[in-house]
Design a protein that fits this description.
The chain contains six helices and three strands. By secondary structure, the protein is mostly helical. The protein has a single domain, classed as Rossmann fold. A three-stranded parallel beta sheet has the order 1-2-3, covered by helices on one side. Helix 4 crosses helix 5.
């Protein structure tokens, strides 16, 4: 985090799209290990209730697939996978550190042993 604080950035108006994306990636990469705690703390644990409600409201029609875009560390994807064992869950994020944390959580919850795939991925060619 201190590395980000010491970095000098141009004005947002002067930045290219690639620079803006890079800064967002840097920010999320720098808080990956504290992301779940910060999410719980800053929301007063409401994030847990929001995810539970979201998962309860899910309807997969005939697809039995769930795509979690900007999954972060994968809490929503994990809740879906734990609630609906027959659903193919895919979590994607453009911050590799977040994806790595999500993969670690999948392994810790033994979701790699599922009959249906649980896929966690990021971009092949990061900016």
């Amino acid at each position: 985090m201190s590395e980000l604080q010491n970095k000098e950035y141009p004005s947002v108006r002067e930045m290219s799209d690639d620079q803006r994306i890079s800064i967002v990636k840097d920010i999320f990469a720098s808080v990956t290990d504290r992301y779940d705690f910060l999410n719980r703390f800053l929301s007063g644990r409401r994030d847990v209730a929001w995810r539970k409600r979201t998962v309860q409201e899910m309807n997969f029609f005939n697809t039995n697939r769930f795509l979690d875009v900007a999954t972060g560390t994968g809490d929503l994807a994990l809740d879906c996978a734990n609630t609906y064992p027959d659903v193919i869950v895919t979590g994607v994020d453009f911050v590799h550190e977040m994806v790595d944390k999500g993969i670690e959580k999948v392994s810790n919850q033994h979701l790699t042993d599922r009959d249906t795939p649980f896929i966690f991925t990021g971009p092949k060619n990061p900016l």
